[in-house]
Hints:
This protein is mainly beta. It folds into two domains: 1-80, no CATH class; 85-192, Immunoglobulins (Immunoglobulin-like, Sandwich), CATH 2.60.40.10. Helices cover 11% and strands 36% of the residues. The strands form two sheets. The chain has a five-stranded mixed beta sheet with strand order 2-8-7-4-5, with no helix packed on it. Strands 1-3-6 form a three-stranded antiparallel beta sheet, with no helix packed on it. β7 and β8 (183-192) form a beta hairpin. It is globular. The model is unreliable at 17-64 and 66-71 (pLDDT under 50).
Amino acid sequence: MTRFIRTTALCSASLAGLLLLSACGKNEPATPASAPAGPGTAATAMSPPAASTVATPAASSTSAGIAPAATVAAPATTVTTTPLTVAKVTLGSDVNAEHQVTRASDRFAPNDKAIYASVATQGSSEGATLNAKWSYLEGQGQMVSSISQSIATDGPAVTTFKVQNPDLWPEGKYKVEISLDGKSVAKQDFEIKKS
């Protein structure tokens, strides 16, 4: 009878070991997540591979002296998303087709018709709102413009804001403040001055 119990315990342990070994290293292939590419959005990023989980209960002896077989849990899928953040704000008087400022500057001439703020973001969002609030800081100060844009992205993206004046800009100090979903996240000072 003791030989039967030992043989059964050995078979159970061997089967548990085979189950554990067969589950090692198996990952489901990652499927790329996609988001519509449009103005101000970047290409999509790949999702991380799914992680495998193997659960093994602690060995305990039963009254018959047989250890229970190991239990193998189904692979768990964990998707980690990084929240959207503003990485960089660049000012300039011209942008390229990728919405990036071509020549960064924090000093502009009174006759520059347009000033751009290129806002680089990282992370992902299904629907966030970026806002650029342009202000003239001289005297009592004055808001020049406030522009909002919606952004949905699954990775790095660039969103461009433009403020323009058909007349000459008053000389002095200015500021653009970028907010994400109503919370201020970046400020950039600039100056308009004759050359």
